[in-house]
Specification:
- With 355 residues, the chain is an alpha+beta fold.
- Among the domains are: 66 residues, Trypsin-like serine proteases (Thrombin, subunit H, Beta Barrel), CATH 2.40.10.10; 87 residues, PDZ domain (Pdz3 Domain), CATH 2.30.42.
- 21% of the residues lie in helices and 38% in strands.
- It has five helices and 20 strands.
Length: 355
């Protein structure tokens, strides 16, 4: 057989290009269809445990979303939904049920409510396994509409927004949100809860969710003590000039007669780990400190010169917890007026944190 002429080779190449493009388009359509089916399956399975919440504060009616986390009727929602309102009514399964507040914690941005019924419950996942661009699904009650699925992806893991620090790292999610969706569960593609939607960004084009581990920490405190028990060790952290063993979080000040001082931690120590959380930057101390419970013995590892030391610190109740709701600098928090926004805590300065 004779070789193809130049014109025939061009036609063959063009045909191959069209075939390749067609295959790629077909593969993309198949992928989109598969994702659509997966989102639909997650929505149908998980929406049974998602509820609409009605309540009243001193100004108006509050509407939001919540979800059951155990079969005894305990549910999570956002603080802006269940934190400062009362006379709660829960809608699910075509019925309405009265609900009571178990706990409201402004530091985590979450609240726990309960109804006296046997209920479905969502499985708890791990936000720590998420990466940027990981697909997620939220199920909420926007405006006065029925439960609605929302598909997006993790856009980032933020410690602050517009100069204000969160009390723990928040999940920034490329999900447009509407009023009424605060408190919605954020689900991974297994249908496990990895976060709770707490606030919207500008133009409602995206949202922030607190990691589910933060709500679980508060629930653990409630089971143990009947309240949230935010811990405190009593030190100020700043940014070290140079990294030491991968960390630039330097203990700048250790306050007198505090857990840190009594344990032997000193100014100049470089924090490497607080509890289970590894530390690389001063901001990491905020995230690590959130998971400290007052009364617990917290292992804190530091570098002092060339020596790595681990101290066991008996955490005390955080000063701001004694008069909740307050900001970390002692300023009282005004009542939340927007039912789809959270109130993040702020620091005294961007360069200094207080665990």
């Amino acid at each position: 057989m004779s070789p193809l002429s130049g014109s025939k080779r061009s036609v063959a190449a063009l045909a191959l290009t069209f075939l390749s493009g067609g295959s790629l388009l077909f593969a993309q359509e198949q992928s989109a269809t598969a994702i659509s089916h997966q989102v639909k399956e997650i929505f149908e399975r998980c929406s049974k445990a998602v509820v609409k919440i009605h309540g009243f504060d001193e100004h108006s009616e509050i509407c939001g979303t919540g979800f059951f986390i155990d079969p005894t009727g305990t549910l999570y929602t956002a603080y802006t939904v269940g934190g400062e309102a009362g006379n709660f009514t829960i809608e699910f399964g075509g019925k309405k049920y009265p609900a009571r507040q178990l706990l409201a914690d402004i530091r985590s941005g979450t609240a726990m409510l309960k109804i006296d019924e046997t209920t479905p419950a969502l499985p708890i996942g791990k936000s720590e396994e998420l990466e940027v661009a990981a697909p997620v699904v939220a199920v909420g009650y926007p405006l006065d509409l029925p439960e609605t699925p929302n598909f997006g992806m993790i856009a980032g893991f933020d410690q602050k927004y517009l100069g204000r620090y969160f009390s723990m790292t928040h999940l920034r999610v490329n999900l447009p949100t509407q009023r009424g969706e605060a408190g919605a569960p954020l689900l991974n593609m297994k249908g496990e809860v990895v976060g709770i939607v707490v606030s919207s960004l500008e133009n409602n084009s995206a949202c922030y969710a607190v990691p589910i581990e933060a709500a679980e920490k508060i629930r653990s405190d409630f089971v143990r003590f009947g309240e949230a028990r935010h811990g405190w060790i009593g030190g100020n952290v700043s940014k070290a000039p140079e990294p030491v063993d991968g960390s630039r979080a330097e203990m700048m000040q250790v306050m007198e007669d505090t857990p840190a001082a009594r344990a032997g931690i000193k100014p100049g120590d470089i924090l490497l780990q607080v509890g289970r959380k590894k530390v690389a930057q001063p901001e990491d101390v905020l995230d690590a400190s959130f998971f400290i419970t007052a009364g617990d013995n917290v292992p804190i590892t530091v570098m002092r010169g060339n020596q790595k030391l681990t101290f066991h610190v008996q955490a005390e109740l955080h000063p701001a917890s004694k008069n909740v709701p307050m900001l970390s600098d002692g300023t009282r928090v005004p009542a939340a007026a927007d039912a789809n926004r959270s109130i993040p805590l702020k620091l005294e300065s961007a360069a200094q944190t207080t665990p």
